[in-house]
Task: inverse folding
């Protein structure tokens, strides 16, 4: 009686291998696998990035549990019945596949597809459920397991761990069925004429071509074509990793060392043991499936550090200015001479104790309700945490006064115009280096770097530069943002001396003159000298003309009418072709364009009044009933901000969506002051779909990992020890600065000793959106 093999030595070796694996995982920086959006946040100075890799913690728990199981087996001193090493090697191979796949990594060990996760309406290529053979209902679309979801959701990776011998067994089984049928029907078939030779049979008719590998691929393709996705995403591609099948038949024989020359000749002439094996591979590849062979055993864990972090995105020197930036650029906070002290800043923005609002008991309120303490704001004021000193200083002040005070203090510490100039200079430097690398002019490397370094002078010194050495910096904005800026600064009385309104008119081309006239930056504007903002879709025309509220609403209704019969599908594979040709964009630009387009379509569709409840004689362009059920929460009518003074034709979030959409379409960098609308869009469920991240990486051609010296030379060593190795195609999609509120009106009133609160009585109802009126 033969004795069974003792796997105790293998058990100890398996535990050592697993310890090495767990140690490697614990040391590994998972941030390398997760997505970083090309957003430059100059408020928090943090990344807008992926939260987690779905399923990873559960998988890691399974690895650690397996370690505890091996420990228990070792402690028991009972020899294992089966070899424990293959299971551990499979876990090591799985981890290697995870960290060698293309980031961003969305999930591991995830079930995808199935009726619960189908896009609606169903994709044309998806399988329609049909009645089963018993007629007892419909067949359900079955889910498929995806081992790794990579490239932000664009790639599904499935591990196929069966050996060649398993496929051969499937072929023999298929052949046995064919032979059995042939034997039973040979007599009747013999009179039916000559048979087609097996060599002429197609792939589909060959027995065994519906093997487990083909079936797995078909299930993955079906699920990928029907699964829901984020707006603008493509159908996921399929990769099958055949971990126990070599790439060529010669590799089958390389497992055993060969020393004989005859053996080497046989190895060179080797072929697959069954021609259906290469036919299967060809069939799958013809369907667009990527096949990867081998278990990565030739790559030790110590050599695998994962993909490089993306380089800090470079802003495009063609800037798209969001509504917040247009308003902020006009703000008195940016242009009036800065206070010399915190006390002077308080005198400009905070009311003295004797002019503070009190509650019913005569006590001063901590923070008065409403942006100006009038209590007329329908939106809840989010109370910011204050320390005891700030609480006492700001007690009883209006929200607007507090915001203005903090803006002034921030401007004293970080002047926006100066900081923006520094950003532009840095972007120019990066683009020069980028162009040099693309052109391959390595011989000019030293002189170019020296030239760029010499540009690191202060903003004032830039004025002495030769104009020919200056970069081309262009500023654009949307028609909606220009309209909103005009309405916000033209409705009601003039703000103080009307300097903010004058800047607005000159910026939009409504008045001739220097935007910086009378500003503390006059003569020191840097790259913003002669600021003029170009408006999309108005180039070549007479220029910007402010429209009435009625015109804007009528245009919005017309757009909504055009969308009546267009199905709006947030979770379909609706890759939009309406993009700018020849412009390099990041994956984030593409999905941002699609999701903002979707929200805008939803909003304009909601402007169509319900014919059964609306009153045709209703005046003032108001809509009684709206189809708002599908609107995201931040676009619901009850959530839209209503300015107490200005007449605004489009709500602020809608105007901001237009800016984000157009900047993404053009591949530009959208400048925002504050994150209000972006935070709302970022958190929408349409952008948080199972199996998808908000974007993906399209690496710049020729981009590769760079060494420490190159990183430090180019300024990419951010002090965190993270060296960023690859650049995305395109530029930063969004750059965020701290917001700036209007301050001229309050400053001038306070200088006169007028601490009253603005009310709607200031606004002449008959003036519409006419020119600004002088403050009486």
Result:
């Amino acid at each position: 009686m033969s004795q069974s093999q003792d796997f105790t030595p293998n058990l100890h070796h398996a535990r050592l291998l697993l310890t090495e694996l767990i140690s490697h995982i614990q040391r590994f920086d998972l941030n390398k696998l997760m997505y970083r959006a090309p957003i430059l946040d100059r408020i928090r100075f943090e990344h807008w990035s992926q939260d987690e890799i779905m399923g990873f913690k559960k998988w890691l728990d399974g690895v650690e549990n397996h370690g505890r199981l091996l420990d228990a087996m070792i402690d028991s001193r009972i020899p294992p019945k089966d070899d424990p090493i293959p299971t551990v090697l499979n876990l090591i191979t799985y981890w290697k596949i995870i960290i060698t796949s293309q980031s961003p990594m969305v999930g591991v060990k995830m079930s995808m597809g199935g009726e619960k996760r189908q896009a609606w309406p169903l994709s044309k290529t998806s399988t329609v459920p049909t009645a089963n053979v018993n007629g007892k209902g419909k067949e359900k679309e079955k889910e498929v397991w995806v081992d790794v979801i990579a490239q932000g959701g664009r790639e599904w990776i499935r591990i196929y761990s069966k050996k060649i011998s398993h496929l051969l067994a499937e072929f023999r089984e298929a052949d046995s069925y064919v032979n059995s049928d042939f034997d039973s029907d040979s007599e009747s078939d013999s009179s039916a004429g000559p048979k087609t030779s097996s060599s002429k049979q197609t792939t589909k008719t060959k027995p065994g071509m519906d093997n487990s590998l083909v079936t797995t691929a078909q299930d993955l393709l079906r699920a990928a074509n029907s699964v829901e996705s984020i707006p603008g995403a493509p159908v996921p591609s399929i990769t099958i990793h055949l971990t126990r099948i070599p790439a060529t038949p010669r590799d089958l024989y390389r497992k055993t060392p060969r020393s004989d020359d005859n053996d080497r000749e046989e190895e060179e002439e080797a072929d697959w043991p069954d021609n259906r094996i290469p036919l299967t591979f060809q069939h799958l590849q013809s369907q667009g499936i990527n096949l990867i062979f081998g278990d990565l055993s030739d790559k030790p864990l110590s050599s695998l550090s994962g993909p490089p972090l993306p380089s800090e995105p470079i802003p495009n020197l063609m800037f798209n200015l969001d509504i917040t930036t247009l308003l902020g650029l006009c703000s008195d906070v940016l242009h009036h001479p800065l206070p010399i002290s915190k006390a002077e800043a308080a005198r400009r923005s905070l009311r003295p104790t004797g002019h503070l609002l009190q509650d019913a008991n005569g006590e001063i309120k901590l923070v008065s309700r409403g942006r100006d303490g009038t209590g007329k704001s329908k939106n809840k004021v989010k109370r910011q945490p204050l320390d005891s000193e700030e609480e006492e200083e700001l007690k009883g002040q209006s929200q607007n006064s507090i915001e203005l005070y903090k803006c002034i203090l921030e401007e004293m510490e970080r002047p926006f115009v100066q900081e923006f100039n520094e950003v532009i200079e840095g972007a120019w430097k990066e683009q020069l280096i980028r162009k040099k690398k693309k052109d391959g002019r390595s011989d000019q490397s030293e002189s170019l770097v020296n030239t760029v370094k010499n540009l690191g002078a202060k903003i004032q010194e830039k004025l002495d530069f030769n104009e020919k050495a200056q970069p081309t910096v262009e500023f654009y904005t949307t028609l909606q943002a220009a309209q909103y800026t005009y309405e916000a600064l033209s409705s009601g009385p003039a703000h103080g001396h009307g300097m903010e309104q004058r800047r607005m008119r000159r910026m939009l081309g409504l008045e001739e003159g220097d935007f910086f006239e009378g500003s503390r930056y006059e003569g020191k504007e840097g790259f913003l000298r002669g600021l003029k903002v170009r408006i999309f879709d108005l180039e070549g025309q007479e220029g910007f003309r402010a429209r009435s509220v009625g015109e804007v609403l009528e245009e919005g209704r017309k757009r909504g009418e055009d969308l009546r019969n267009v199905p709006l599908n947030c979770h379909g594979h609706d890759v939009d072709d309406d993009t700018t040709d020849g412009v390099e964009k990041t994956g984030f630009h593409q999905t941002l364009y699609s999701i903002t387009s979707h929200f805008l379509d939803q909003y304009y569709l909601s402007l169509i009044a319900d014919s059964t409840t609306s009153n045709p004689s209703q005046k003032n362009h108001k809509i009684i009933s709206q189809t708002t059920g599908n609107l995201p929460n931040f676009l619901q009518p009850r959530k839209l901000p209503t300015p107490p003074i200005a007449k605004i034709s489009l709500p602020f979030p809608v105007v901001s969506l237009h800016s984000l959409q157009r900047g993404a379409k053009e591949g530009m960098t959208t400048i925002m002051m504050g994150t209000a609308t972006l935070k709302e869009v970022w958190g929408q469920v349409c952008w948080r779909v199972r199996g998808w991240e908000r974007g993906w990486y399209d690496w710049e051609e020729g981009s590769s990992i760079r060494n420490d010296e190159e990183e430090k030379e180019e300024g990419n060593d951010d002090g965190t020890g993270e060296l960023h190795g690859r650049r995305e195609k395109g530029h930063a999609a969004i750059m965020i600065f701290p917001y700036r509120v209007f301050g001229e009106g309050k400053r001038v009133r306070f200088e006169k000793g007028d601490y009253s609160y603005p009310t709607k009585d200031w606004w002449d109802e008959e003036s519409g959106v006419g020119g600004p009126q002088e403050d009486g």
About this structure: The chain has three domains: 8-127+140-175+205-307, 341-413, 416-761. The longest strand covers residues 143-150.
